Amino acid sequence: MKALWKEFSTFAVVGVASSLIHWQLFYVLVSAAQLSQAVSNFSAFCVAATFSFYVHALYTFEAGASALRYLVYVFFMGVMSFVVGHYADVWKIHGLVTVASFSLLSLICGMFFSRLIMFKEREE
């Protein structure tokens, strides 16, 4: 249980840094570039995911990073980011609510996806 808590706390710290990258880029894309929330959320996610994926591979899960793992991660979480942004556009939800809700969803789903699928062989 102690190892799982350490893993989760490291995941959360990296998640905060990744979220800051995501939120700032989302804001720039929505405000300055006048892009939709769906496109902005997906684009900001992709940049933040690149940072997050490699840091998690090196420190959180101590597993090697590969192009295939990265693509699987970006596809899974990227689809989720686009869907959240799309519904925010459709329902005219404020951008802060969009990135906050996606960040929470990303923390939960990303942890389980990473631990159970992407970096599973580390434990085997």
Describe the SSE topology.
Blueprint: H1 2-31, H2 37-60, H3 67-91, H4 95-118
Protein name: Bactoprenol-linked glucose translocase
GO cellular component, one term: plasma membrane
GO biological process, one term: polysaccharide biosynthetic process
Give a brief description.
By secondary structure, the chain is mostly helical. The protein contains 4 helices and no strands.
Commentary on this structure:
With 124 residues, this protein is mainly α. The chain has one domain (2-122). Helices cover 83% and strands 0% of the residues. It is built from four helices and no strands. Helix 1 (2-31) runs antiparallel to helix 4 (95-118) and helix 3 (67-91) runs antiparallel to helix 4 (95-118). The mean pLDDT is 86. The chain crosses the membrane at residues 12-30, 42-61, 68-87, 93-113. It comes from Pseudomonas arsenicoxydans.
Largest sheet: none
Total number of distinct structural domains = 1
Helix/strand-derived category reads mainly alpha
Radius of gyration computed on alpha carbons: 15 Å
- What global shape is seen? elongated
Percent helix, as a range, is over 70%
Question: What distance separates the N and C termini?
Answer: 18 Å
Number of helices: 4
Task: Find the count of extended strands (DSSP E, 2+ residues).
Answer: 0
Q: Into which percentage range does the β-strand content fall?
A: under 5%
Low-confidence stretches: none
Order of helices and strands: HHHH
Let me know the average pLDDT.
Answer: 86
Subcellular location: Membrane
Membrane topology: Multi-pass membrane protein
Pfam family, one: GtrA_DPMS_TM
Function: Involved in O antigen modification. Involved in the translocation of bactoprenol-linked glucose across the cytoplasmic membrane.
